[in-house]
Amino acid sequence: MTIANQTIKIPDSKLAREVTEIIRDTESELLFNHSSRVYLFGALAGERRRLKFNPELLYTGAMFHDMGLTETHSSADERFEVDGANAARDFLKRHGITQADIDTVWAAIALHTTPGIPKHMHPVVALVTAGVEMDVLGLAYGEYSDAEREAVVRAFPRTPHFKEDIIQTFYDSIKHKPDTTFGNVKADVLADKDPHFHRGNFCTVIRQSRWHG
């Protein structure tokens, strides 16, 4: 697909086609389209930042990043990010991908909900998170042109109430293992010592993003 004078394509290799097939067969349409947008927004960010990245690895990381939210790959006691990373690791091992590349994709998925760290790491790690933050939270929304945003959403549509749909999907997928949602311990310190401290709220950020729906 061509987006605002830039050619950003879904990889068409054998590996990428198998990624598409397994994600389409396993995830809901909501998550499949979201993951596809994550790849496209991440690739656009990579082009804009002039980062060198392997499209196949970025695509695999983007498409598997929410696999841990599916019943098939949701464990009893691991973070959903780790479940998704492990699913991608096993897939890539079956295809003879080097351990270094597997480790990169694993980290990209495992860290995609950990702000402030991925952007300093390998481009694939940084760009999976960039794509997620754009599609879910609307971060860097203004850095994408109207034409880019519209082209991505036209190719892989958002549901009419995507914000609430994605929040509900998260809840349904992790409610059986609340201990895995333990967050940044520094927020606990501030909450303990500062009566005026207010925790950041993931759901509030989603709802206040510049995205509609």
Explain what you see.
There is one protein chain. The chain contains ten helices and two strands. By secondary structure, it is mainly α. It has one domain: Hypothetical protein af1432 (Orthogonal Bundle). A two-stranded antiparallel ribbon has the order 1-2. Strand 1 and strand 2 form a beta hairpin. The chain is globular, with a radius of gyration of 17 Å. 35% of the residues are buried.
Give the secondary structure arrangement, pairings included.
Layout: E1 2-3, E2 6-7, H1 14-26, H2 29-49, H3 55-64, H4 80-94, H5 99-110, H6 123-137, H7 146-155, H8 162-174, H9 185-193, H10 202-208
Antiparallel strand pairs: 1-2
Helix pairs in contact: 1-3, 2-3, 2-6, 2-7, 3-5, 3-6, 4-5, 5-6
How many DSSP helices?
A: 10
**What oligomeric state is this?**
single chain
Question: Which structural class fits the helix and strand makeup?
Answer: mainly alpha
Shape: globular
Record the strand order, biggest sheet. 1-2
Mean pLDDT: 93
CATH topology: Hypothetical protein af1432
Whole-number total of structural domains: 1
Helix content: 55-70%
The CATH architecture is Orthogonal Bundle
Outline the low-pLDDT stretches: none
Beta-strand share of residues: under 5%
Termini separation comes to 24 Å
The helix/strand series, from N terminus to C terminus, equals: EEHHHHHHHHHH
Largest sheet: 2 strands, antiparallel
- The CATH class label is Mainly Alpha
Instruction: Report the C-alpha radius of gyration, rounded.
Output: 17 Å
